[in-house]
Design brief:
single chain; alpha+beta; three-stranded antiparallel sheet; DUF3906; DUF3906 family protein
Length: about 70
């Protein structure tokens, strides 16, 4: 299992970051869509989505997300 740090540019909401656990890159993108639909009231339009980092999910794994 891997942890994915993903960056998503949405049409109206701007830039968002997600941390997702998945077995494959394809699965990570599928989960990304599911999380966006659950989080926002309406179904957001995705302009671009990319994987920023990918790490094995082991005890102690994590990411630092800076806000600028």
């Amino acid at each position: 299992m891997y942890m994915y740090k993903m960056e998503v540019e949405l049409e109206k909401e701007g830039l968002v970051h997600l941390i997702i656990m998945a077995e494959t890159d394809e699965q990570a993108f599928d989960y990304l869509e599911e999380h966006l639909v659950r989080h926002f009231i309406h179904n957001p339009e995705v302009r671009e989505a990319s994987i920023i980092e990918k790490k094995r999910a082991v005890k102690g794994s994590g990411y630092v997300i800076e806000s600028k």
